[in-house]
Amino acid sequence: MKRQIGQQTLLFENRPYVIGSAGIVSKSESEGPLAESFDRIEPDDTFGQDSFEKAERTLYLETIRLACQKSGLQPKKLSALLGGDLLNQLITSNYAARELGVPYLGLYGACSTMSESLLLGSVLVDAGFRSPVACVACSHFSTAERQYRYPLEMGTTAPPTAQRTVTGAGCVLLADRADSDSRYSHIRISSATIGTVIDLGINDIANMGAAMAPAACDTIQKHLKDMNRKSSDYDRIVTGDLGTLGSELLCKLCSQNGISLSNVHMDCGASIYSPEQGYNCGGSGCGCSAVVLTGHLLPQLESGALKRILFLATGALMSPTSCQQGESIPGIAHAVVLEHAEGGEA
Amino acid sequence: MKRQIGQQTLLFENRPYVIGSAGIVSKSESEGPLAESFDRIEPDDTFGQDSFEKAERTLYLETIRLACQKSGLQPKKLSALLGGDLLNQLITSNYAARELGVPYLGLYGACSTMSESLLLGSVLVDAGFRSPVACVACSHFSTAERQYRYPLEMGTTAPPTAQRTVTGAGCVLLADRADSDSRYSHIRISSATIGTVIDLGINDIANMGAAMAPAACDTIQKHLKDMNRKSSDYDRIVTGDLGTLGSELLCKLCSQNGISLSNVHMDCGASIYSPEQGYNCGGSGCGCSAVVLTGHLLPQLESGALKRILFLATGALMSPTSCQQGESIPGIAHAVVLEHAEGGEA
């Protein structure tokens, strides 16, 4: 049983199945180029609640319920829920978990949460500890804005390097087998690489793409080395929310390290909005990569249009307090390999 | 390979070894009954830093380094670091991980973090994904007080149900084998139970013991059922930081459910300070159970004075924002079984 590969990579010998997913977004996301791909669009970003925090929790919960419903699974049958969000003390995730009443593990990886939850969910399923499990990440523009930046009422102008926090949640269901009720039966997770924290000294909190790009580069490098692969062994290398500027930096950094990302790189943050929407460098937030994965990428993996992707959600690990104390912004990226698999049933 | 037992329990067939540990505390903890047991006492709670947040980070980092040093392990050789703290965005843990440069997974379980990290660390080691790994939890009175309650300068009086956040960090090193350099070679982790979020409607943030007791009771019940055991099959059932009042409630709740905890229950929060110190219901914070585990319990497991314990760190999953919005306090408890094992080398 050789599951530890190289420096940072885990090999999933039983290759957990993606059996279902859901992604829910709000108005801004419905006006972007990926609008068609989302499972549900809720134009009212309060989700019928009297606070944005409760709205975010509703979004999180409904996304899990929708993923289960689409896969013919009772939410109560979830053998574990692994998830997180951006709010202090993970209140979105914690209170949603209270409603579901299933075994719950709270994760904090900032915007890297979607790949952290997929990585740990795959570990639990691959080794026979749990199945099925739900892996979730969620963010909301209005809660993030007031917690991390300024009161919404101030109407602050965003600088050109800024990104807009995506209002969205994505949930991926993993299991040790596919069955006929599963929405998906041709997507499997074959390996993953745990990220290390990398900090090159960026301290501009309106330029998170630059802060996270080095971490993404580091994980890509280590993953390729551990797996003895080239970037061209992937149909897509997908980063979470580097945005347009961060993506440029990533390609440059990788190129300096002998890795070509041209033709293969895609960034969820740079893809979710159109330039006309005026959101500067694109989308961010842990919901960003979660909804692009569930809406845009998984269907292509199921159909075989994509054969193998490396999915790296990227996180900026600072807090308003650490920045006020003069700290720079550390980044992290965890990577998960999703593959199209012929056959279906295990 | 049957690793999923009952509703919520994981069986570790390879029973990961605890190969080392460290616990560092500050002045208040050094004046309590467990003072002798801690690896290091740092009377200056700034740890030589210019902010309490940086102090906490130093505490976290030095605890990991001390655990490694005591076990003859280079920190760079850690194959994964799983940890968390109580600060917004886990800045203690994230910035400490930046210094270490090892694969890192950030966890948020409030004061349940020590057992959450032991549970996931055991999963990684048991299934051959990673070894050795470090599992860490840390809290600091002065950072927690100002983030969760009032500015220290106000000198607010604590109500009788309150507990004092422990300034302390604990680190446990797990590996797939014991070797002669290991500090410990007779402690193994045999199973664990993932908690569910339980909320009976307590909304007094100065009474967290009462908020967490139902979650502890729920996990104990499910663990015993899943493992087909009685409470007397354990030398100790150890809860994290219910404090004196929460402990009473737990014993009552368990008794109502047919589980007797008399002679077997111990609460870290109720044990770390003496009543003369005037900290009301005792200690709290995720560092509390972490230092009592590493200082007080592990040596007894190594010697065989304790044969088998159920360790449940307990977490209150609210935030100041959720409480201000009228929410009650959800609790969670994850359980890990640590056993004295004859033999030593695998």
Could you characterize the architecture of this molecule?
Two copies of one chain form a homodimer. Chain A is of the alpha/beta class and 346 residues long. Chain A is 34% helix and 22% strand. Chain A has ten helices and 15 strands. The first copy, chain A, has a seven-stranded mixed beta sheet, with helices on both faces. In chain A, strands 4-3-9-7-5-6 form a six-stranded mixed beta sheet, sandwiched between helices. Chain A is globular and about 55 Å long. The mean pLDDT of chain A is 96.
Supply the key terms.
homodimer, alpha/beta, 346 residues, 15 strands
List the helices and strands and how they pair.
Two copies of one chain form a homodimer.
Chain A: E1 4-5, E2 9-11, E3 17-25, H1 27-30, E4 40-41, H2 52-70, E5 80-85, H3 91-100, E6 104-106, H4 113-126, E7 133-139, H5 141-148, E8 164-165, E9 168-175, E10 187-193, H6 208-227, E11 236-239, H7 243-256, E12 265-267, H8 268-271, E13 283-284, H9 286-303, E14 308-316, H10 320-324, E15 331-340
Parallel strand pairs in A: 3-4, 5-6, 5-7, 8-13, 11-12, 11-14
Antiparallel strand pairs in A: 1-2, 2-10, 3-9, 7-9, 10-15, 14-15
